[in-house]
Amino acid sequence: MIDQIKQILALQEAEAVIDHIRSDAQVYPDRLDEVQKAYDEKKRISDEAKTRLAALEAEHADLKHTLSLEEQRLEKSKKKMKDLTKVYEVQAMKKEIESTERSNSDLETKILEKDEDMSKAKKFLEQFQTELDQAKAVLDDVKSEVETKMGEYDGILEEKLTIKKKLEAECDRSILSSYRMIRDRKYQDALVPVIEGACQGCFMNIPPQMANLMMQNPTQLEKCPNCQRLIFWHEDEAESA
Ligand SMILES: [Zn+2]
Fold first, then answer.
1. Are 192 and 200 in contact (CB under 8 A)?
2. Spacing, Cα 163 to ligand 1 middle (Å)
3. Is the pLDDT of residue 29 over 70?
4. CA 74–ligand 1 middle distance (angstroms)
5. What backbone torsions phi and psi does residue 192 show, to the nearest 5 degrees?
6. How confident is residue 1, by pLDDT bands cut at 50, 70 and 90?
């Protein structure tokens, strides 16, 4: 095989690797994005539960404070009642005491309810922490995997881009421009061999006259009349024919 065919084939191979890496590399940021979103969602749920627990604790403290003030007031009223002499005053005080006792009992019920809500919220947070930790571990794993992979890809890309540049500088200008035109507009495999009379791009037979010419002059590049790819005579053709 002559040098210019070898060069274009090597260029084509380098470009195939570059294309492959560029499309494959896109998979990793997408995957990272996915696990990041999954973690963010769990973090949001956990933060919301923490905020709710803090609110419950504040409400609980408020209720307890109110209850203790009311209990003090009740004690005072009970003491005061002993000193009262007039019947209507005693009756009024009795009513007040009864009403305070009822509202204090309501407060106690509310405090118990808050207690229950708080322990539910705490239990949820405790259980959910495991899920959150797992999501964080997955995120960290994927992050480091992506970093490693991107580093590898960067290395290969740099190498292949250097090869590509060098080959492009060395290739015959007009062949390179035909190759570039076909590769950019139609096919990634712009240069293919002819094996057993068939173009290996479209697998159609080339006309016998063209095949004869190519066989006689294997350094010549032609265009497949069917698919327009650049074609070259495969060196093993003479042996296998
Ligand atoms: Zn063809």
1. yes
2. 27
3. yes
4. 101
5. -135, 155
6. low
Ligand 1 centroid, distance to 167 Cα (angstroms):
24
Tokens of residue 136, six digits? 């964080």
β pairing state of 230-233 and 191-195: parallel
pLDDT at 2: 65
Which domains, from first to last, does the chain contain? 17-170 (1.10.287.1490), 174-240 (no CATH)
- Distance (Å) from CA 96 to ligand 1 centroid: 103
Question: What's phi and psi for 189, nearest 5 deg?
Answer: -95, 85
179 Cα: distance to centroid of ligand 1 (angstroms): 14
What is the spatial distance between Cα 175 and Cα 220, in angstroms, rounded to a whole number? 11
Helix extents (H) in the chain: 3-83, 87-170, 173-185, 208-216, 237-240
